[in-house]
């Protein structure tokens, strides 16, 4: 019940200001967003990759309001890529981007987002890695898929995300499950109306498995974005049935969530990629993590109340 309330709060500017300014918030935020600058994040990248984990890096930020902010988002990724170049990690460290941070919601936003994301994708390719386009709320997806298709003409390894809770997603999965594609499937983290999305967890879980089966049976490269132990088990079974070996698909989980499972799956020989977010504009990302597990909110409130 709390999840939708927290998701609504994630869009409130007033709460954003209050929560972001409160000093007690920091330690709780750090569990999910382990740094604010690229210098703080480089040691985390080095540590994770030395343990056999792979990464997808997210510079947090979304819903920007000016083209200058969109250009700054692009530059933040370009700065990250400069640091990754020095680490020479190839696809062990890729990038995840939210097109809203690149200007997608502004006037002329589709073209603006494409023109801002293209140099990032180019720079990533130049150091031997790639970019995945995150999925945001359902109103943005046609534009995201069109940008994905456009980028893939020159950079076929560019990935995208599909959300199992949306009714449209099985069709998207069929379209995308083609040779050379990289597709992350997740349950979905936004507050969506009943006209476009399943609302109950059992329905969402069943939809996830249907979508995952399509990806596993297809010719692309599935990226299983979930912490759900049942999904992890079913993914391995679907992969086995589809004749896929570890390395023909990968698991992805968020930094700070089920951390021992990251290491366990990597030790079993799976590709395990940790989605690692950093930056100063962490409010929206942080609130979605609270919404996914109300116990996180209690932990957060307890740390506020005991200060
Ligand atoms: P759930 O059934 O929600 O959780 C299963 C178990 O995982 C829980 O019981 C709990 O033990 C643990 N868990 C899950 N979430 C949390 C949490 N926040 N804190 C602590 N424990 C938790 N969503 C999008 O809409 N667009 C995206 O582009 C996107 N990218 C993602 C990338 C990755 C790599 C991952 C892992 C998720 C991404 N998500 C994205 C979020 C996703 O949609 C879900 O909201 C999130 O993963 C929770 O769903 P779950 O599959 O882990 O299953």
Automatic annotation (TrEMBL):
InterPro entries reported for this sequence: FAD-linked_oxidoreductase-like (IPR029041), PRODH_bac_arc (IPR008219), Proline_DH_dom (IPR002872), Proline_oxidase (IPR015659)
Alphabetical list of Pfam families matching this protein: Pro_dh
Catalytic activity, as annotated: L-proline + a quinone = (S)-1-pyrroline-5-carboxylate + a quinol + H(+)
Gene3D superfamilies given in the database record: 3.20.20.220
Enzyme Commission number(s) from the entry: 1.5.5.2
Enzyme class at the top of the EC tree: oxidoreductase
Cofactor: FAD
Pathway note: Amino-acid degradation; L-proline degradation into L-glutamate; L-glutamate from L-proline: step 1/2
Record key words, sorted: FAD, Flavoprotein, Nucleotide-binding, Oxidoreductase, Proline metabolism
Domain Proline dehydrogenase: 48-297
Top-rank lineage group of the source organism: Bacteria
SUPFAM superfamilies: FAD-linked oxidoreductase
Designated name of the protein: proline dehydrogenase
Origin species: Streptomyces evansiae
Lineage: Bacteria, Bacillati, Actinomycetota, Actinomycetes, Kitasatosporales
């Amino acid at each position: 019940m709390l999840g939708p309330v927290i998701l609504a709060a994630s869009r409130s500017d007033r709460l954003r200001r209050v929560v972001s300014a409160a000093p007690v918030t920091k330690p709780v935020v750090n569990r999910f967003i382990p740094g604010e600058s690229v210098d703080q994040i480089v040691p985390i990248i080095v540590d994770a990759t030395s343990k056999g984990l792979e990464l997808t890096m997210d510079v947090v930020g979304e819903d920007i309001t000016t083209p200058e902010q969109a250009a700054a988002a692009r530059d933040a990724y370009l700065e990250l890529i400069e640091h990754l170049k020095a680490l020479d990690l190839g696809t062990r460290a890729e990038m995840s981007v939210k097109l809203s941070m690149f200007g997608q919601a502004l006037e002329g936003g589709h073209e603006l987002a494409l023109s801002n994301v293209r140099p990032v994708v180019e720079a990533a390719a130049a150091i031997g890695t790639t970019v995945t386009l995150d999925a945001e709320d359902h109103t943005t997806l046609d534009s995201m898929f069109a940008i994905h298709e456009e980028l893939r003409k020159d950079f076929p390894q560019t990935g995208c995300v599909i959300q199992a809770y949306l009714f449209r997603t099985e069709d998207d999965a069929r379209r995308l499950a083609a040779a050379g594609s990289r597709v992350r499937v997740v349950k979905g983290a936004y507050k969506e109306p009943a006209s476009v999305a399943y609302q109950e967890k059992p329905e969402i879980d069943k939809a996830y498995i249907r979508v995952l089966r399509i990806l596993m049976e297809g010719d692309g490269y599935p990226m299983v974005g979930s912490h759900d132990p049942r999904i992890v088990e079913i993914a391995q079974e679907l992969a086995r049935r589809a004749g896929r070996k570890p390395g023909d698909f990968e698991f992805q989980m968020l930094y700070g969530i089920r951390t021992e499972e990251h290491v366990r799956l990597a030790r079993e020989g799976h590709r395990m990629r940790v989605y690692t977010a950093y930056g100063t504009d962490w409010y929206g990302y942080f609130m979605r993590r609270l919404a996914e597990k109300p116990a996180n909110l209690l932990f957060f409130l307890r740390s506020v109340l005991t200060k």
